[in-house]
Amino acid sequence: MTPLTTPPLPPTTIAALHRLGLASQEALSAFGPARACLLLRAAGQPAGRRLLYALGAAARGVHWQALSDDERSALDAALTAALPVRVPPAADEARQHMADARALAAEAAASGEVPVGALVVKDGRVIGRGRNAPIGLSDPCAHAEVLALREAAATLGNYRLDGCDLYVTLEPCPMCAGAILHARVARVIYGAADAKTGAAGSVTDLFSLKALNAHTAVFSGVDADACASQLSAFFAGLRRTG
């Protein structure tokens, strides 16, 4: 990996990028300079047009003054087109909430439901919990995310869950993604990807549609192996019992 350097980036920006998980030229290039600029702003760092150009230059390993007018225009356009960006949750916090979501998924499995669990968190406090229950409730909408959203909305007395995070063990399906967006959830953090119905990038990506009037940041792969193993064990058990 190629380290970020001064120039073109100020030392304070390099330190901030390290804290945000962008510690190399390759990571910055993959994430995108425009999105990195928005991420720095979300983290409370000053990030104007000159820094945008410096980020673009750093992603290529050149000085920002070496960028052509066309390259600067492309960075400006990318910044305008980019979706809102949010800072990821702290790793320890994310793992703890995902462990709690997996406990809910285990309860679902014990009831014969596909093991998916979800939590809604606001300011560090769990305000909604849900586990898959479409069979038990005879309700096709009773996915873990929907039930957690309902409980959180009842807790707050408002269907708009501004400033809330949703943790779920499996990538949301299109129905749940729509509910999450409608609720104005700030961040979704999920464990295992869903290659069959995932609507956060695996099959489709409803969260990437800028034309929508609300946007939710998505973070994936938290305890992904443990979440996937939970699902695999459940379906293996079904196959054994016929």
Description:
The chain is of the alpha/beta class and 242 residues long. It has two domains: 11-81, DNA polymerase, domain 1; 91-241, Cytidine Deaminase, domain 2 (3-Layer(aba) Sandwich), CATH 3.40.140.10. Helices cover 48% and strands 12% of the residues. The protein is built from ten helices and five strands, in the order ααααααββααβαββα. Strands 2-1-3-4-5 form a five-stranded mixed β-sheet. β1 (117-122) and β2 (125-131) form a beta hairpin. α2 packs across α4, α3 crosses α4 and α3 (33-42) packs across α5 (69-81). The protein starts with 10 loop residues before the first helix and ends with a helix.
Question: What is the structure about, briefly put?
Answer:
The chain is α/β, with parallel strands linked by helices and 242 residues long. It is 48% helix and 12% strand.
